[in-house]
Specification:
The chain is an alpha/beta fold. It has a single domain, classed as Alpha-Beta Barrel (TIM Barrel), CATH 3.20.20.370. It is built from ten helices and eleven strands.
């Protein structure tokens, strides 16, 4: 297999809505956990495709049956914070660290082992995040966009000074499996009208057409390329998205040089 496709899910459930200030929005999180996760797991059972789920500790503790089903049916569960609060919003390294630890503990309680991979919740690293990833022995991250179709090694935060060129930070030993925002279902397909953001509702076939086109380009131009999709159960598990996703899986399965892999497998292959 020359190329890989990673199907990844940010299973935020209610944690993604806690800062919205509108209690009725939390029903979307319940919908994702109780309606969409079972649909998606059934889809993966039918197709035999492995996937990676980034699950906040808040979700694990709030919806233990749904989180347990993901693990029991053979999919990897990785770190996505505990609270899903943006990392730069913590007022200190210790506060961010406490959230890290609580998220790790929730995953250990569920799976019996610590997570090895990470995706930032709500976008962005703080100045402390890379240090925390190293402290807790994370092997890989799937947050960055320094490349689009090939893994790379995560770097320390770069230096930005007024009237001076940008200076990149030193390379770490943590692999990044990139996931550009144009492969995020939420940013294209989930209708949200609330301060401070407005996201318009797109058309599922158009989005999947773009993803197929990018996959074709990768197969033609990138050696051992990796296409990572960032999906959310609240979006990916509803009609007609789930049907479009199944058709996409079938198309990829028919390719001789491309197959599905979880992110841990891709990161380990890149490191070797």
């Amino acid at each position: 297999m020359s190329h890989s496709v990673c199907l990844t899910y940010d299973f935020d459930a209610v944690s993604g809505w806690t800062s919205a200030g509108m209690p009725e929005y939390r029903s979307w999180g319940v919908y994702g956990a109780e309606t969409c996760v079972p649909r998606l797991l059934d889809l993966h059972d039918r197709t035999g495709v492995s996937s990676t789920w980034f699950v906040p500790g808040h979700t694990i503790e709030s919806f233990p049956e749904a989180a347990g089903a993901i693990h029991d049916r053979g999919h990897e569960i990785q770190h996505h914070g505990w609270s899903h609060d943006p990392l730069p919003s913590f007022d200190s390294r210790d506060a961010e660290r406490r959230d890290f630890v609580r998220g790790i503990e929730a995953i250990e309680e569920l799976t019996g082992e610590p997570p090895t991979g990470f995706r930032n919740p709500a976008g962005g690293f703080s100045e402390h995040t890379v240090d925390l990833l190293r402290e807790f022995g994370f092997e890989w991250d799937s947050s960055g966009t320094e490349r689009d179709l090939r893994p790379y090694y995560l770097r320390e935060p770069g230096t930005v000074e007024h009237d001076r060129p940008y200076r990149r930070g030193d390379r770490t030993g943590i692999v990044t499996v990139p996931v550009p925002w144009h492969r995020d279902d939420w940013l294209q397909l989930f209708p949200v009208a609330s301060d401070p953001q407005f996201v318009s509702y797109g058309h599922e076939p158009d989005v999947f057409h773009r993803w197929r086109t990018e996959l074709e380009w990768m197969r033609d131009h990138v050696e051992e390329g990796v296409l990572t999709l960032l999906l959310h159960p609240q979006c990916a598990g509803r009609a007609p998205f789930v049907a479009e996703l199944e058709a996409f899986i079938e198309d990829v399965t028919d390719l001789d040089d491309t197959g599905f892999a979880d992110v841990s497998t891709v990161a380990a292959s890149f490191r070797s």
